[in-house]
Specification:
The structure is a homodimer of 273-residue chains.
Chain A (H helix, E strand, L loop, with lengths): L8 H8 L3 H7 L1 E5 L1 H9 L4 E6 L7 H12 L4 E3 L2 H5 L10 E6 L14 E7 L4 H13 L4 E5 L8 H7 L8 E4 L1 H11 L2 E5 L5 E2 L8 E6 L8 H4 L4 E4 L11 H18 L9
Parallel strand pairs in A: 2-3, 5-6, 5-10, 6-7, 8-10, 8-11, 9-11
Antiparallel strand pairs in A: 1-4, 2-4
Helix pairs in contact in A: 3-4, 6-7, 6-10
Chain lengths: 273, 273
């Protein structure tokens, strides 16, 4: 189908999806670009519709993606470049965008004997950090993300973009601190937090095969209520002038320490190579 | 001094400093916010001038910073909120900004017996990644950054902001691949690169106390010309669906592996605690 009008309700909706409020009212979110849409198709995200502009989309990979969309009977809209540009986030858009349906994941299940590593993020504010943490969690064979308290919207386009596709491979769960506390007790799961005030070095302890790694927010660190859930608190040593690491870096260092320990003890296969 | 006009040449310059071209023509760059200006003062950055708005700057720390600027005879300009807002980068600016002079660092010196770890970044494109790498390099007691080839402007406000002050503690050097090659030979410095195609695990090798860690760009990885400079190439294992890590994460994992090895062998003091 073709849309040529800027004021078509579907085009208006695309622009509205920049706002968290409209995303959640509609249960929809917006993604843009060849790679993300390729990943969304590969990992079976639920498509509401695909929007494309042939003049901008001059690549074989783009044509390949459109064919898959056709085969899957996804609603497809063809637009002129100026209409596409009216909602595109990039200055030089690749000519393909999609509206996806939000998914709700069932409560995470603890499976005996299986390695399961979750990350719990408290009040994370930066969408780039959240996307990057999804990406490292995928790389280290993680099991999902708990979003605790007032976090940045997980459907923010910068989260999806920063995750480089791992947004579609890692389930996520919104949880209050109380709910997490109940879930932890019910499943008897080990919780490990990090704090620059902790005395234990992050390389000193042995990480269990099932656990939640809890990270505090960029500004405030671990909240006392969350800290009290932790069975252990460790710190990442630093020798410079600054007093903290970037949150996605600190989380990645922790995830790789856990992953490296588990690779060596045979709890996880050592990469895809 | 007070400036009330939007078209004052100094105010016009502040807006112009958003562009790389104007920054380098003037040898000046722009920073904004309490924390960055505090760090710039602490680490003796060279100030051209400070701009503040008392209505926006309602904090003791802000007043403290202004006092230091006065003591150091830094040119200070007082502005109304609307003029300040005309160049501020943040939506809710903290009411203090500064123009700093670019510094050129002398060629890095190799000091016998001293632990010296440099990071060489080839064609890094994302300012947030570059800032984050400065931050981790500071944390791991690094010696500076080589910017190889066509990199993002190191004076981009997003680099300085992302570095959280470590911009002022880590020297940086622009180098062509050829220059780096000459410098490496002259100083007999070990160069270690990373590539997802490398067979050696990044935890398998022993890192020397003086070395350059080379990281390829976000999109292209290591260029063959740079790869040929490397004495060793290692990879960071991954077990997920995605094929790469965020560049600042990958660099930080490498820097911490080097740092952790050196902490354990006594080459570096184990943090400030």
């Amino acid at each position: 189908m073709e849309i040529t009008s800027f004021s078509n309700p579907k085009i208006k909706l695309l622009r509205k999806l920049r706002d968290k409020k409209h995303r959640h009212e509609n249960g929809l979110f917006y993604v843009e670009g060849l790679r993300i849409i390729g990943d969304a198709l590969e990992h079976d995200a639920i498509f509401d519709a695909v929007y494309y502009c042939e003049d901008l989309l001059n690549s074989h990979f783009g044509e390949h993606l459109l064919k898959i969309c056709e085969q899957r009977n996804i609603d497809m809209y063809h637009l002129p470049a100026n209409v596409f540009g009216s909602f595109a986030l990039k200055d030089h858009p690749q000519g393909i965008a999609a509206v996806l349906k939000m998914e709700t994941y069932e409560e995470p299940k603890v499976i005996p004997e299986k390695r399961q590593i979750w990350v719990g993020l408290e009040a994370i504010a930066d969408p780039g950090n959240l996307g990057t943490i999804f990406r490292t969690l995928d790389a280290t064979a993680g099991s999902g993300v708990f979003l605790i308290g007032n976090c940045v919207d997980v459907y923010d386009p910068a989260v999806v973009r920063g995750s480089m596709g791992s947004f579609f491979t890692q389930p996520f769960y919104h949880m209050k601190a109380e709910t997490l506390s109940i879930w932890k007790s019910k499943n008897n799961i080990h919780v490990i937090g990090t704090s620059d005030k902790a005395i234990k070095d992050y390389q000193e302890i042995e990480y269990p095969g099932q656990m939640i790694l809890i990270m505090g927010s960029e500004r405030e660190g671990l909240h006392p209520e969350i800290e009290s859930l932790c069975d252990d608190i460790v710190s990442i040593p630093m020798s410079g002038f600054m007093d903290s690491l970037n949150l996605s870096v600190a989380t990645s260092l922790m995830l790789y320490e856990i992953y490296n320990q588990h690779r060596k003890s045979g709890k996880v296969l050592g990469g895809r190579k």
